[in-house]
Design brief:
The protein has 279 residues and is mainly alpha-helical. It is built from 11 helices and no strands.
Length: 279
């Protein structure tokens, strides 16, 4: 708390005395916020502890900056942000907190609640899926919560992540495959339909079918508890490393990539793969 207070004091000083900080608005900060968030995601996927710590600080700066701007307009402040978040977390975890703890200054989880002080909302929850199902149901009941199950999915999300979140939210209300293995029939069906349109060279319908196929693959990943965004990013990085190996070799021998044959590049690609295995 002392460190957080010191940080807020520094932010106040910068807002009052730094020309750059003075002129910032929600609109001007937004692009930087997106960039900082992606930098944090980059550090997370690399599992770089030093960078994760640093990037968390950068994201925290932006969160507090928006709260500071709102405070100057007498809209809300950082305390309001924290209080609203705390209230929401307690409300959405009735299996951990008794409803009486919602507005408590020092909320105590259920082990502190007398056993005879029972409440119907204290449903026994033992699995992650039960927690998520309860979470979605509670959100729909909240005064300023989501109007529908899928309305909580931000429109600006990258398409791959959005597809995963759409499917996950639908699952939380029971709209899902009974057996995860059944999804493969859908994946094969969508691939067949895509191939039909590609053979016709119908670009519009091929695009639609490609979307359906990708959506079904993402659905399969979700059912098998794999994160498709992380998986694709790992493949992106793997491709970059292997291609960089080919490019470095071409520079070493003084032969431009566009002068190398596909066979030569394939050979170097396989070399890069072997190096990965040994590494």
């Amino acid at each position: 708390m002392q460190a957080f207070g010191r940080f807020l004091d520094v932010l106040d000083a910068l807002r009052a005395n730094c020309p750059w900080d003075k002129k910032q608005t929600n609109e001007s900060l937004r692009p930087n916020t997106i960039e900082e968030t992606y930098e944090l995601c980059d550090a997370l996927i690399k599992n770089d502890v030093h960078d994760i710590c640093k990037e968390l600080g950068d994201v925290l700066l932006h969160i507090c900056f928006y709260a500071k701007i709102a405070e100057e307009k007498a809209q809300f402040d950082m305390a309001d942000v924290c209080n609203a978040l705390t209230k929401k977390m307690i409300t959405r975890h009735p299996h951990v907190y008794h409803p009486s703890q919602i507005d408590a200054e020092e909320p105590k989880p259920l082990p502190y609640v007398p056993e005879d002080e029972s409440d119907s909302s204290q449903t026994k929850v033992t699995t992650v899926s039960q927690v998520l199902e309860n979470w979605e149901q509670i959100k729909l009941k909240e005064k300023d919560g989501n109007e529908s199950v899928l309305s909580g999915v931000p429109e600006a999300l990258p398409s791959l992540i959005k597809a995963y979140r759409i499917q996950d939210k639908a699952r939380n209300v029971g709209f899902d495959w009974e057996k995860k293995e059944d999804v493969w029939n859908k994946v094969r069906e969508e691939l067949d339909e895509l191939e039909v349109e590609l053979r016709k060279e119908d670009k519009e319908n091929s695009t639609k079918e490609l979307g359906d196929f990708l959506f079904s693959v993402i659905n399969a990943a979700r059912l098998y508890k794999l994160n498709p965004d992380n998986a694709l990013e790992m493949t992106n990085r793997k491709f970059i490393d292997r291609f960089n190996y080919i490019e470095a070799h071409s520079i070493k021998i003084g032969k431009p990539l566009n002068k190398m044959s596909l066979e030569e590049m394939d050979k170097l690609w396989e070399e890069a793969k072997k190096i990965e295995v040994r590494g």
